[in-house]
Specification:
It contains seven helices and seven strands; from the N terminus they run E-E-H-H-H-H-H-E-E-E-H-E-E-H. It is an alpha/beta fold. Strands 1, 2, 3, 4, 5, 6 and 7 form a seven-stranded mixed beta sheet that branches. A hairpin with a 4-residue loop joins strand 6 and strand 7.
């Protein structure tokens, strides 16, 4: 099928995905609701984790939490932490315990950064080869900013050359899903925040925002892992609905499409939200915040064992793993760093 026009950014013209069976002639996903797609784009063209105590980038631009006008702030990352395991949330947000860098998280950070910077290039230069050439210098820049990342490699870790090759594989898969030469995002790594009537501040970073000529908004998030299995989409979409809620509060427009791009297995998950969806998300976020507040008041941060424990950095402090919970630090305002959760996926 022909590639249809649909999404533009600050300049130029962008298109929907090519050969996407769920896309109609206007570049819109077909039926409302959830859809998967594994589109292919032809390349036959002649034109060629930092220590938790470190300051969040949001701290430099975010509305401060004063406990009166702003009761607290939360990101989808930290809300997801609490829903997964309140004790893990405490260790990350209250105790701010250090976490060892992981190859998977670092791969996500590296690929995200390359995809962000790719759109700084002229459209015709956004090729798989050029993106691959960006990997090594981008990795060196990350190492300069976070030297501890080198600790991942060595006798007990992966070979750095093999690891960089795996990053290239994930990056190449992006070009099977979208053609960045035909996209001009309105925003990349966009910091957003919105204050709810309850005085809870929602904040976070959005990977990409596309805007169509008629004003429709598409929120795009890159995931370096695999798409969730059937029945597990709701958890994956919570982050996207969170961002859609913030955009709605900021701009008065409900985003038309929420799009998760899974580079681990080359699938796209799309959802079309409506106002009822976003009101329900607002109620859910406020309920999570109320639970966080109760836990802080009582000091009762319960562990929640699950398969996610295999990837947790806090086994030595977790009673379900035979560890000892450290004493709580002095009480602080329950503000939450808005972190870039995409980078660890």
């Amino acid at each position: 099928m022909a590639v249809a026009g649909g999404w533009i950014g600050g300049v130029g013209h962008a298109s929907s995905l090519a050969n996407d069976p769920d896309t109609d002639a206007l570049g819109d996903p077909g039926p409302a609701g959830l859809s998967y797609a594994s589109p292919r784009v032809s390349r036959a063209m002649t034109i060629p984790p930092a220590a938790p105590a470190a300051e969040s980038p949001a701290e430099r631009v975010s509305t401060p939490v004063d406990g009166v006008d702003v009761l607290g702030a939360i990101s989808p990352s930290r809300a997801g932490d609490f829903m997964a395991c309140p004790l893990m949330y405490r260790f990350r947000t209250i105790d701010r315990l250090p976490e060892q860098p992981s190859p998977d998280a670092a791969r996500g950070t590296l690929v995200h950064k390359v995809l962000e910077d790719l759109f700084d290039l002229p459209a015709l230069d956004r090729t798989p080869e050029r993106a691959g050439d960006m990997l090594e210098p981008t990795w060196q820049a990350l190492l300069a900013a976070e030297p501890e990342l080198e600790e991942m490699f060595g006798e007990s870790g992966p070979d750095v050359t093999a690891w960089l090759a795996s990053c290239r594989t994930v990056l190449d898969r992006y070009f099977d899903l979208e053609d960045p030469r035909r996209l001009e995002p309105a925003d990349r790594e966009l910091y957003v925040e919105a204050l709810l009537d309850s005085k809870l501040l929602l904040r976070g970073f959005v990977d990409r925002v596309d805007v169509a000529p008629d004003g429709r908004i598409r929120i795009v998030d890159y995931k370096s892992g695999k798409s969730p299995g059937e029945g597990y989409e709701a958890k994956a979409l919570f982050q996207m609905k969170f961002y859609a809620l913030v955009i709605w509060r900021l701009r008065g427009v409900v985003p038309s499409v929420l799009q998760l791009v899974y580079l681990g297995n080359g699938e796209i998950l799309r959802y079309e939200p409506d106002e009822d969806d976003l009101r329900a998300t607002e109620r859910k976020v406020e309920a999570v915040w109320a639970a966080i507040t109760r836990a802080q008041e009582t000091g009762d941060w319960q562990p929640s064992p699950s398969r996610l424990c295999d990837w947790c950095s806090f086994h030595e402090f977790c009673p379900t793993k035979g560890g000892t919970i450290p004493p709580l630090p002095e009480r602080t305002t329950p503000a939450v760093d808005a972190s870039v959760d995409e980078s660890s996926d």
